[in-house]
Amino acid sequence: MNETSVPVCDYEGSRYRTEFWEGQGRDYEDLTERVALRALLPPCGRRIAHLGAGFGRMTGELGGYDQVIVLDYSRTMLREAQAHLGRDPRYIFVAADIYHLPLADGSCDAALMERVIHHMADAPAALRQVRAALAPGATFVLEYANKRNLKAIARYWLKRQAWDPFNPAPVEFVALNFDFHPDAMENWLRAAGFVTERQRALSYFRLGALKRAVPTRLLVALDRLLQPTGDWAPYSPSVFTRNRAVGSEPVAALDGPLFKCLSCGGPLHDDGETVVCANGDGRWAIRDGIYDFKEAISG
Ligand SMILES: C[S@@+](CC[C@H](N)C(=O)[O-])C[C@H]1O[C@@H](n2cnc3c(N)ncnc32)[C@H](O)[C@@H]1O
Ligand SMILES: [Zn+2]
């Protein structure tokens, strides 16, 4: 699949925050993700890209970094992230497509992408874009939805589910919603220039009745104990991975330019209202504190 033609799951106008998270009985999922992230991500660094950050639910976990790129395709989500996080100058809000990342090559020493790749019809293309934005040695924490989970295996064996959880091909259970096989994900990460160092198996207790019956803090404590089993047996619905960017290509310094031109890859000049390509083939707006790379402006 060509990177230019990949469909995006569009959250413009979405009520994801209020309809999926707030008051929706998902404290267990939220807390277990924080446990995994704290175990995998270096607590501090120079510049981290939070890709598909949504309304910034997890962005507050990145407070040890000098600069945090809060990037999402949805302007609605970014406006909510601004309200959620405040106008701390360490946060840079960017509207962009992960398949066309405007981040300069090697400009970040870490990246986080959780609950996003399950929307990607061409996961390998997205991973290549992330790798290009990272410096060699950088850490990439990636969460993905695991098709080879215990519930899917049981349903398959009981003939209540047609698709095979052991087959490495992604399964699209709803349009633009994919579950992935752990082996396929590891292979794609390797092909993109990453080595997977650690895996955390999360959310084994993601069952409504269990969540209602057992105190959340107990479920989270049990989840914390189980998470390290992801290194050898990831059979949970959600998997967090820590990946190291390999390679020795020369890169821009981490305090160098953040953005690159989406047309030619050249550096962009920031004049306060727009970012402009030095080669004259692209200009993008900065509106209400958001660098908007969803469409170039003419003139
Ligand atoms: C399920 S939400 C998760 C948000 C956040 N990571 C969280 O866990 O709370 C998926 C997010 O990915 C974003 N997204 C999906 N495809 C994208 C793409 N191609 N480029 C940038 N963002 C994308 C959506 O706009 C949405 O905010
Ligand atoms: Zn250019």
Can you characterise this structure?
The chain has an 11-stranded mixed beta sheet, sandwiched between helices. With 299 residues, the chain is α/β, with parallel strands linked by helices. It folds into 2 domains: 7-245, 3-Layer(aba) Sandwich (Rossmann fold), CATH 3.40.50; 257-285, no CATH class. The two termini are 32 Å apart. The mean pLDDT is 95. The protein is 26% helix and 26% strand.
Radius of gyration: 19 Å
Find the structural class using helix and strand composition. alpha/beta
Mean pLDDT: 95
Bound molecules: S-adenosylmethionine, zinc ion
The main sheet orders its strands as 8-9-5-4-1-2-3-13-12-11-10
Q: For the record, give the distance between the C-alpha atoms at the N and C termini, rounded to a whole number.
A: 32 Å
Count of alpha and pi helical runs: 8
Which percent bin holds the helix content? 25-40%
**CATH level 1 name of the largest domain:** Alpha Beta
- The count of domains is 2
C-alpha geometry: globular
How many beta strands in the DSSP annotation?
13
Taking pLDDT < 50 over at least 5 consecutive residues as the criterion, the unreliable ranges are none
